Amino acid sequence: MSHIDYCLYFHGGVSRSDLERRFGISVAAASRDLACYRGLAPSNLVYDGSDKVYRIGEDFRPINAFSTDRVLSWLRQGFGDGLALGMDRPIAADCADLLAPPSIEMLGILARAIYAGRVLRIKYLSLSSGASSREIVPLAFVDNGQRWHVRAYDRKNGRFADFVVNRIELAKVSESAPEDCESLIDDRQWNSSVSLEIVPHPGVRHPEAVAADYGMKRGVLVVTTRAAIAGYALARWNVDSTRKHSLSPLRHHLWLRNAEVLRDVESAALAPGYAPAQSEVG
User: What global pTM score does this model have?
Assistant: First the structure.
């Protein structure tokens, strides 16, 4: 039913042959699927006998609500959650992919550890200290738009931290078990949220264009995010996070007008230009 929803909404119509090609089913099975869909949502489609195609109805309402993220993925990769189906995409779309996607093998090791609640011994390449061995308790994944991280409790430094997946050279399951204080519910930054008030950069000549870009209401976009990823988000969106919007509006079309909310956010150091006010230091 989801495929029929998709074809009607984004192609304007669906035919029996569409279903036959997509799913490798018989003519009779495709006819049954269309009849079933029509029974569930008769106003969603109108049969066009001249082309033997069901056209989208004026009162179309999808049977399954569309997720924006899922639709964008369909448009980039084709319907089917990115499966390599060997089918042409009728609508051209592309994106700037990750420069170096994480390895499936390492993602599998980390995911299994998260799911089973295991501790890992890893060899990690840090920008500040180089290669080192440490024990971590993997808890969640974070995609910052450029790299994948694993959120984990770092026993070496006694805190929750993010590790770039591609910098983990080795990972083996440890015999030790996670302590009570090493669970995701104890990660304050992960469980805390901040509301970011993002507005057009005051230096932009036509702020209404920026407001339209981001669907702002009354010139502001309020985004609530985890404290643990707030800095990543502001960096990805290229938001000027200085107190007096001092970064160039040519590169930063957005400004964080309530930078004070980042005071207790550990990831704030990643936000473009952010520095705590003197009254917040110490």
Answer: 0.80
